[in-house]
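Quick illustration, no need to memorize.
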Amino acid sequence: IAHIKELKEDTFQHAKIEYVLEKETGKDHAKTFYSSVMFNGEKIGKSNSKTKKASEQNAAKQAISNIKDRY
């Protein structure tokens, strides 16, 4: 997540980046978290994992890769 913020500061000073927890499934002891990263209103990364943090981090990694491919 920190890498996206650094990229935002260096390259996209006016970009709007949001992290969205789309849903949680499963019982309390075995949840799956679904997260996405929005870049100026467009979904550019998504992931799911057993922890919210890992889901957000993996979505951020995918977003960084997608941003680098486009710009």
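The CA atoms of residues 32 and 61 lie 18 Å apart.
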